[in-house]
Amino acid sequence: MKAAFLTGLRKLEIGEAPEPRIQRDDEVLVRVDAVGLCGSDVHTYKEGGIGGARASYPWILGHECAGTILATGRAAGGAKAGQRVAVDPLISCNRCDQCLAGRKHTCRNQKFLASPGQAPGALVERLVMPAECCHPIPDSMTAAAATLTEPLSIGLHSRSLAHLPPGGSAAILGSGPIGLCVLLALKQAGPVKVLMTDLIEERLDMARRLGADWTASAVRDDVPARAAELFPAGVDRVFECAGKQETVDQALAMLSPGGVLVLVGIPEVERISFDIHTARRRELALQNVRRQNRCMQPAIELVASGKVKVDELATHHFDLAESREAFEMVSDYRDGVIKAIIHVTQ
To answer: Which residues constitute the domain of residue 89?
Structure first.
């Protein structure tokens, strides 16, 4: 079968990979229909890894994926051939203390698609996954929209951890796909005023179209000063979705006493510092986000019902042979790209 192999920094080649085989009764064979490119994929493409993990070459990227079940093991539950599915890229052990406590996203033995040292990614024609990772989608949902339920699930999980009351205020620093999914999640839950920032004008335009009440340019504007104009008492919650020291500093300056900094972005560096006196005097809370937990199904239901519309996020489309062009476009933020979708099966 065809697969896109990362063979070095910014080197991606289409080649042949062994056919995957169902080895456990609870597994299914999935034809991969579409894969969305995530920032974590781009980090590995450009820098060889992310979050301290380094890829060994050749490696296969891609974890936001949707497909069609081709075959099932004997204990695959309700999964059946021909079923279209959105895939949760986390393979958990279901045995450790974290899994048993309902925290599969912090499973101590997890394997995550495309995560260096864990499991190869989804930029392949066929993929074997546990049946529990494959969530049925309706015929009305496009493969591109199905791939976007994974980043939307991160937005839903981030929202749940923030405990932002209706009528509250929020700032989202970074208007890439994850930041925009946080926006969609917040707006779906109820009335909330949201300020969004980014370096790229096209992303700020998208944020406004998707419901942001205000935007600020990280290039032209003094972001904390802009937030102080809009929220004189401070912002209740700040979602840091850029993974940068600068945005962490901005977040602390913007938060109201008792506020919460929700760290969603993944930094490229090993250490981020905090103004401890600002955090202490205002009694600010820090909430890290580890992907998502049990939010894929709610994300699918929201998209299927039309209550959350993700289609506009998919700005660019490629086929498998064009994978390198897709990665280059996303790496260089060209042509106003928000989310690039690779259609593996035409």
So the answer is: 2-136+310-343
